[in-house]
């Protein structure tokens, strides 16, 4: 304390107040008021403090203006626990994505809901940061693009498409190495609806891409009208022939232009951050292939998207009239 006061003795604020007192003694009240906007009452207060302190300059230190009693943010414990659970399970889920899920929880459990900014404060103050450290975002290699030679004319996409209707699919493959085991994550997403699907495979082949296409088609809620990929070998051969037989146009992006496939590239990052980096299941087990199902169910039914007006893909389908709530709850007999 004494050291801090000693430092303040030489500060500009203490010297300024002493200078004002000296100026007042020399030139009087009117000149002091015009020069420093300090009236006689404040001068007397400073004089009294300086006299009580036996002329020590540290007595002119301004008193702290912090309130003695500060407000404390009070939030229902159920709400805080729900935020903790969401952040612990999905560490990359931000306050904007948590807000709609929390509103549904508060509606069912009846605690008072909170604003988006309050969610952010709770995350920061409670230190709800559970993402694993030391992970590096996957940077796909472009070496194969330089070796690729086009043998026939392909349908090309020059710019990132902005389809008006549903059915335009973008797909990509991500190479993942976990616990020394290499896996290939096949991803596909509707450009407008943001309905996504993902499945891991041991090899990056055209045959596996055909199998992935069949799986995607079985869960996709509408009809596929076109398919967009990069120039990888898994998108040629059997897969290209399969799309041709089903009459689905196959569009290719230009080499070294990942922005054209921007929607699926962003989904690649999302599923790595929110699922792959949080998954503790060993890659060589059967459970590993089933693990993405839970996350995809969350992604397509609960996780909201800014591009959809903070709605999930299925809620957006219902809003657009493509699906109904009855079709979501219908069971087969």
Automatic annotation (TrEMBL):
Q: Which GO terms describe its molecular function?
A: nucleic acid binding
SUPFAM superfamilies per the UniProt record, alphabetical: Ribonuclease H-like
Please report a single Pfam family linked to this protein.
Answer: rve_3
Q: Which InterPro entries match?
A: Integrase_cat-core (IPR001584), RNaseH-like_sf (IPR012337), RNaseH_sf (IPR036397)
Among the GO biological process terms of this entry, one is: DNA integration
Ranges where the Integrase catalytic domain occurs: 159-321
Transmembrane ranges? none
Q: What is this protein called?
A: Integrase catalytic domain-containing protein
Species name for this entry?
Candidatus Gottesmanbacteria bacterium CG11_big_fil_rev_8_21_14_0_20_37_11
Q: What is the lineage of its organism?
A: Bacteria, Candidatus Gottesmaniibacteriota
